[in-house]
Design goal:
The structure holds two protein chains of two kinds. Chain A is built from two helices and nine strands, in the order H-E-E-E-E-E-E-H-E-E-E. Chain A is an alpha+beta fold. Chain A has one domain. Chain A has a seven-stranded antiparallel beta sheet with strand order 2-1-7-8-9-6-3. By secondary structure, chain B is mainly beta. Classes of the chains: A alpha+beta, B mainly beta.
């Protein structure tokens, strides 16, 4: 792939890079300054987590990179009350978590969130619920993720809750 | 080169007891309790046996080194029960922590398929189980314990494993396969070995849900071929502790009557008269000798009719009466043992019987053959005595009677049994 960069000239009569940066900075100011939803990313160190046959690891065997805080817009679904087997073995399954995060913010933090990473979300001061990234939202070609079709500026992550034996934090 | 010193000449493959001793051991396990009867085996006992089987045989260490979580109760529809039984391994949300194993019993319990117990004793009848000695302070007795046939039942269980790792599935599967390598395994319920049959494996894993929580879930369906024993159906009845034996000895064959025998020689022929006393019961009277020629049978002076009043087969010594002669009645059987009848002169004799109707005013009646001797003369069944009622002359035809009975209708008849020359 060519390293050459091609400037975006779409909407150039009434929208420019400066406008884009302005909107982005205003949005970040609102999200990071006013809303301020803190999340903790636990990235799996894939080079150190090795399983020859199944590619799965036991409890405490997964190696993580250093946890990193980041901010995003968080929406959590309602829990699902269900059972494992024909009405027996009840489980109150937490709803999925949808995170909207600015790409600029991830670039600033120099992190990438990928499929399978874990994200901790403080529900209370002492209670963290962990989620697994089921959709890392790297494909942002749709209009929704752009400003008027000019350029994409955020990602939407879909995360599912994980059970304690899978991940309980580092 | 010598043999190695440390070697075994015999390998004891089976270290337990065998054959009769093993059977006694099993019986001891079943009855090893306060009473001499087996304990009840009901649905909850079989359920508990299944839980114990899983606990003892199917649990394994997870990758963390901990034993897999096991819900030690049968889950029912009561929610509080499920909550309390899963309490030791739930997370902050109250959800069961993975991995875990749970036993789920299918509510329906059909009649059993174990062929050794099916339809062998009908109608819940009890059968003898054991005789137990009793002592009431004075007398040694016994109680008979009876129990009905156990009812076979098939109970289906799903042993469900829910986990997040393939390795845990593998470990559990290995346990199951090792235990059921011979199709069936056994659990011990109150001393009874109950067969368990692996019926199938099904998978309900949530692995196709991309945007939901994913986990493995597999069910192993196991059929428990048990039976029900209910102690409320047991019967304890006292056995016989004293016996009073009353015997009444009766014989339906009477005789021989040696003290009553009377022998008369008539024309070189020994005519035997045997006298019996009737007892009202006996129908068959046995003479001392074989009866070759039965002359007559008389009951209290009345001559009986062969074929009607009594039966006699030729050459037999048994006289069989159709009805037993009355009590204390006098029975006379007149017969000869001789098979060939000969006169003093060595001439062969025949026995003839004639029945003559009385004629008014006629005192002498001629017979068809000459008379050598008269054995029996009766009038209307009443035995008459020679010289007293009738006379005859040897070698002639006539019989002279002293008195003629009143002429009646039908006419009174005289029956004469006599010997004549051939």
């Amino acid at each position: 792939m060519s390293k050459k960069k091609q400037p975006i000239n779409r909407l150039n009569k009434f929208f420019s890079y400066d406008d884009f940066d302005l909107d982005l900075s205003m949005g970040e100011e609102w999200l990071h300054g006013d809303i301020n939803f803190d999340l903790v990313l636990f990235r799996v160190d894939r080079s150190k987590t090795v399983d020859d046959v199944y590619g799965e690891s036991g409890k405490g065997e997964i190696k993580f990179l250093s946890p990193i805080e980041f901010k995003g817009m968080v929406v959590i679904g309602s829990p699902d009350n269900k059972t494992y087997s024909n009405g027996l073995g009840r489980i109150l399954e937490p709803g999925n978590m949808t995170i909207s995060v600015y790409k600029h913010h991830l670039e600033e933090k120099n992190i990438d969130i990928t499929y399978g990473d874990y994200i901790g979300y403080y529900e209370t001061e002492s209670r963290v619920r962990y989620y697994e990234v089921a959709n890392d939202g790297k494909v942002v070609s749709d209009n929704k993720h752009t400003i008027g079709g000019f350029k994409s500026f955020y990602r939407t992550l879909l995360c599912t809750p994980v059970s304690g034996d899978q991940f309980k934090g580092v | 080169m010598g043999l190695p010193k440390k070697h075994k000449n015999d390998i004891n493959v089976y270290t337990g007891k065998e054959l009769l001793e093993r059977r006694r051991e099993l019986l001891e396990e079943i009855t090893n309790q306060d009473t001499n009867l087996p304990e009840s085996v009901l649905h909850e006992d079989l359920d508990f046996g299944m839980l114990e089987f899983v606990k003892d045989n199917l649990l394994f260490k997870t990758g963390d080194g901990d034993t897999i979580n096991y819900i030690r109760r049968i889950l029912t529809i009561q929610r509080w029960s499920e909550m309390s039984n899963t309490f030791p391994f739930t997370d902050e949300d109250g959800n069961i922590e993975l991995p875990f194993i749970v036993v789920i019993r299918k509510p329906e319990v059909p009649f059993g398929t174990n062929p050794s117990l099916q339809y062998t004793i009908p109608d819940r009848q009890s059968f003898f189980y054991r005789r137990v000695p009793t002592w009431n302070g004075n007398r040694l007795g016994a109680d008979i314990y009876k129990i009905p046939q156990p009812i076979p039942v098939d109970m289906s269980f799903d042993i469900v494993i829910v986990c997040n790792r393939m390795r845990e599935l593998n470990r559990f599967n290995k346990k199951i396969m090792q235990k059921f390598s011979s199709r069936q395994s056994y659990t011990n319920v109150k001393g009874h070995y109950i067969p368990l049959v692996l019926e199938g494996i099904s998978d309900q894993s949530q692995i196709d849900s991309l945007e939901g929580r994913r986990y493995y879930q597999q069910s192993y369906t196991i059929q428990l071929q048990g039976f029900l024993i209910d102690d409320e159906e047991f019967e304890v009845t006292p056995a016989i502790d004293r016996t009073l034996i009353m015997s009444e000895l009766m014989s339906d064959i009477k005789g021989p009557s040696s003290s009553k025998i009377q022998k008369v020689i008539k024309n070189n022929i020994e005519v035997i008269t045997e006298k019996f006393l009737g007892d009202g019961i006996t129908t068959t009277y046995k003479t001392q000798k074989k009866v070759n020629n039965l002359f007559y049978v008389e009951l209290n002076g009345l001559v009986l009719v062969l074929g009607e009043d009594y039966l006699h087969n030729g050459n037999s010594s048994n006289i069989i009466f159709t009805t037993p002669p009355p009590l204390d009645s006098v029975l006379r059987i007149v017969y000869t043992f001789d098979s060939s009848l000969k006169s003093m002169e060595g001439k062969f004799l025949n026995i003839k019987k004639e029945v003559i109707e009385f004629v008014d005013g006629q005192m002498t009646y001629n017979l068809e053959h000459t008379i050598e001797d008269i054995i029996l003369l009766d009038v209307g069944g009443l035995l008459q005595i020679e010289g007293d009622y009738f006379t005859f002359i040897k070698g002639e035809y006539g019989v002279t009677v002293n008195e003629i009975p009143p002429i009646t209708t039908p006419k009174t008849k005289m029956s004469i049994l006599y010997l004549t020359q051939v």
